[in-house]
Design brief:
- By secondary structure, the protein is mainly beta.
- It has a single domain, classed as Barwin-like endoglucanases.
- It is 11% helix and 47% strand.
- Strands 2-6-3-5-4-7-1-8 form an eight-stranded mixed beta sheet.
- A hairpin with a 5-residue loop joins strand 4 and strand 5.
- It starts with a strand and ends in a 10-residue tail after the last strand.
């Protein structure tokens, strides 16, 4: 049996941009993507700590070490610049494998969105 588990998490990053006129997605600093084991095009869940919104979108690679967290397209209506969010990626795996799996968890600096 396959179950879905957390495989990646970027905990408490600040939204730096919201671009309603973009096609759609979340742009994430490339360094944060690598540290959290997320890839471009991957589906992620966004949890907005400021307003309680939860929604899904997909990842676009942003410029490295800029701290960019930009919600694009319709997702831009679910956040405000400065909101603090959690980004979660999930994966499917066998039940027994999931028992010992360790997700990639990243806790960047909440002011800069950079890994210290």
């Amino acid at each position: 049996m396959l179950i879905q588990v957390v495989k990646s998490k970027i905990h408490r990053v600040k939204v730096t941009q919201a671009d309603l006129n973009y096609i759609g997605s979340i742009t994430i600093d490339e360094e944060l993507m690598e540290a959290s084991n997320l890839i471009e095009g991957e589906r992620v869940q966004i949890v907005n700590i400021n307003n309680g919104e939860r929604f899904e979108t997909y990842v676009i690679k942003g410029e490295r070490r800029t701290g960019t967290i930009c919600l694009n397209g319709p997702a831009a209506r679910r956040v405000a610049v400065g909101d603090v969010i959690i980004i979660i990626g999930y994966g499917y795996m066998e039940f027994e494998e999931a028992k010992s799996f360790k997700p990639s968890l990243v806790f960047p600096n909440e002011e800069t969105n950079l890994i210290n």
